[in-house]
Amino acid sequence: MADYDYDVIIIGGGPAGASMARIAAQNGMGVMIYDKRKELGEPVRCGEGLGEREVLSQRMDIPKQCFSTEILGAKVIAPNGKSIVWKDKDTRGWVLERKMFDKWLVELAVEKGAKVKTYSRVTDLVKKDGKIDGVMVSQWGNEPFEVRAPLVVSAEGMESIVARKAGLRAMSTLYDVDTCYQYEMKPYDHENLIELYFGTDIAPRGYVWIFPKAAKKANVGIGIGGHLTNGKKGGNVEGADPKVLMDRFIEGHPQLKDSSVLEDFGGVISVGAPIESFVKDGFMCIGTAARQVDPIHGGGIALAMETGIMAAGVAAKAHSAKDYSEKMLKEYEGMWRAGPGKKMAKRLLLRKVMEEVNDDDLNHIFNTITDADLQKIMDGNFAGPVAKVVAGRPQLLRVLKALIA
Ligand SMILES: Cc1cc2nc3c(=O)[nH]c(=O)nc-3n(C[C@H](O)[C@H](O)[C@H](O)COP(=O)(O)OP(=O)(O)OC[C@H]3O[C@@H](n4cnc5c(N)ncnc54)[C@H](O)[C@@H]3O)c2cc1C
Predict the structure, then answer these.
(1) Using the 8-state DSSP alphabet, how is residue 43 labeled?
(2) Could you read off the pLDDT of 57-90 as tens digits, one per residue?
(3) What atom in ligand 1 is closest to the CA of residue 160?
(4) Is there an atom of ligand 1 within 6 Å of 47 CB?
(5) Ligand 1 geometric centre to CA of 229 (Å)
(6) Architecture in CATH of 70-96+173-270
(7) What residues does 287 pair with on adjacent strands?
(8) 40 CA: nearest ligand 1 atom
């Protein structure tokens, strides 16, 4: 590390950056995480749901203080109110306390030797002979200074400003994002199920979620198609605005209409394809910065962690070989596209197909399929459920055939 301050500088201490930092440090790399927030994990901009299946593969034991409550299953509600309850190992999980969870993930990295600095915004890249060679960091709002490393990683989340400066096309169109609003509410008597409500009038090109929390609380949120927001027509909803739609949903909800709001925020999450390329010479992009998010539900925590670990393995090889070229780093991209990327591509197709389906069709689908079918659909095995749905409504074949082509 003769001329360098660190082997790798990671921009962002969210689940992606912290997971990468942990494994890179474990592999002997000198790691620095910069995060612009004053306190890691705060403010929370997340529904905080995390599937057990997604995390089991990472063999992590999430400590009690990092989650609010356990999820026992999911309840999916059609526009006409019919619901399917789906309880099995695939729908179990947690509603996290991300304030604690994000900090815990960074602490694990620090225990392996990584360094972290909060209230430290990376403002730009440093280049030497045209190659990325470090970053400019502004701490506590002061004049930026130079910090050098042969590898810089963007784990910046949706903003991905530095990734764009590195030449990656880390931009999302309005069509490929959901605009969201969420309240933490109390009291809410729940059954430890995540509840998902669908319907054009409820949430055009999206859904309302109620995620259970301890002490009779819940995260109540909405995500709608970004292109339908701000005065544009979304289905039957004129001038769709996520907060207005959510307030209307709450007013009509027998329990929530009398509950109080403890916290509220708005946010944007990708539901589109990942960015075209994740690496450049001396640069990697991971997690939501690379738009590695589930296009069906906008979940990105588990993917961010998985990707961080994947990228760290490749970074460690690059470190041993003293070769941080795009060619060397590309192995991470190949691993992602052959692994989680394949599954996400199927989910993106499903999202796009479901956009063509109206509420009446959706009611028919919910009347026809079972919880076992839902699992098949989420796993990308569309043929069986599609056959069942089309048998009762042949005209849907025109739309659904894209799933079985
Ligand atoms: C309303 C909403 C609800 C959601 N609900 C869920 C859910 O229930 N389950 C789920 O799995 N996912 C959910 N998501 C998505 C999830 O929050 C993200 O996918 C996840 O946080 C991605 O992790 P990450 O580490 O890639 O990025 P982030 O968690 O966004 O972390 C990025 C970090 O980078 C820092 N940073 C950014 N720019 C700079 C810079 N220039 N310099 C220094 N630091 C910088 C930020 O401060 C931040 O700490 C939701 C998203 C939204 C908007």
Answers:
(1) S
(2) 667 889 999 999 999 999 999 999 999 998 988 8
(3) 38
(4) yes
(5) 21
(6) 2-Layer Sandwich (3.30)
(7) none
(8) 49
